[in-house]
Specification:
- This protein has helices at about 20-25, 30-55, 65-75, 80-110, 115-130, 135-145, 150-170, 175-185, 190-225, 230-240, 245-270, 275-280.
- By secondary structure, the chain is mainly α.
- It has 2 domains: about 30-65; about 70-280, MetI-like (MetI-like fold, Orthogonal Bundle), CATH 1.10.3720.
- Helix 4 (about 80-110) crosses helix 10 and helix 8 (about 175-185) crosses helix 9 (about 190-225).
């Protein structure tokens, strides 16, 4: 007979329900200090390569400023950059929060009914295929030059991956859990809230983590057209005035913002799903 898969599942008492393969224990683990050191070392290597390219003038300074010039641009206008960064941050967080609520609700609705899934899936796919940059001028016409069109743009770019991940997670709930809930005479709502949704949470967070970098992209995309503040507005204005160092400074802030928001979401996942962290940390 073929051997059972080398998968370990924990029951309620914490015991092991299936045989554990020695290969899982043999996987190398990366220590926490090393996890912090590796990206820092890689970033330092990229900065060193960037500095060498600019120092050797492989690329014209007009097209690629040196790291020193970018730092000088950051120091030159810290208050203005902080104000623009705060505007982009608010647009990103508000839009992402609304998209998370709408996306999880939409995914739950699609997973709860085959009729709803068959009706709306083609429209979701078609709408996601529309280039969002084509909608940016229309949003400005409809909503004006406030933060509203940027927030709507963030929602538009984040909605589809969250809906898809949520619906997939809810539809792939282990059958034994659903059958157990039915045997206990749980209602459809109780099964959804107490069984299917907790089981789908890792997949939901996967969709959220995929959508979060897109939220920053959506905010900047909205700011490139018809904006009076935000880091995207800084990039547009610095390009118009040929201040490439300032544009790189704004892009650097955007990169740092994306990393901070992403790992804040990872921390939220660890706090909300401690059992998933425990399972993966032993491999």
């Amino acid at each position: 007979m073929p051997h059972p898969p080398l998968v370990c599942r924990k029951n309620i008492e914490g015991g092991c329900m299936s045989q554990v393969g020695s290969r899982a224990e043999g996987h190398s683990r990366v220590s926490r200090p090393l996890r912090l050191l590796l990206p820092v070392a890689f970033a330092a290597a990229l900065l060193g390569l960037w500095w060498m390219v600019t120092a050797a003038e492989v690329v014209s300074p007009v097209l690629l400023p040196s790291p020193n010039e970018v730092v000088a641009a950051l120091v030159r206008e810290p208050a203005d950059l902080a104000q623009h960064a705060w505007a982009t941050f608010l647009e990103t967080v508000i839009g992402f929060g609304i998209a998370a609520l709408l996306g999880t609700a939409g995914g739950a609705l699609i997973a709860s009914s085959r009729v709803v899934e068959a009706t709306f899936n083609p429209f979701l796919v078609a709408f996601n295929a529309v280039p969002k940059v084509a909608l940016a001028p229309l949003l400005v016409v409809w909503l004006g030059f406030s933060q509203a069109p940027k927030i709507v743009m963030v929602i538009l770019v984040c909605f589809f991956p969250i809906v898809l991940a949520t619906a997939t997670g809810l539809k792939t709930t282990p059958a034994d859990l659903v059958e157990l809930a039915r045997s206990l005479r749980a209602t459809r709502w109780q099964t959804m809230v107490k069984v299917r949704l907790p089981a789908a949470m890792p997949q939901v967070f996967l969709g959220l983590k995929a959508a979060l970098p897109l939220a920053v992209v959506g905010a900047v995309l909205g700011e490139l057209i018809g904006a009076v503040e935000g880091l995207g507005f800084v990039v547009t204005m610095s390009g118009a005035t040929s201040d490439i160092a300032l544009a790189f400074a704004a892009i650097s802030i955007l990169a740092v913002m994306s990393v901070v928001l992403y790992y804040a979401l990872v921390l939220a996942e660890r706090l909300a799903l401690p059992w998933v962290v425990e399972t993966t940390s032993r491999q």
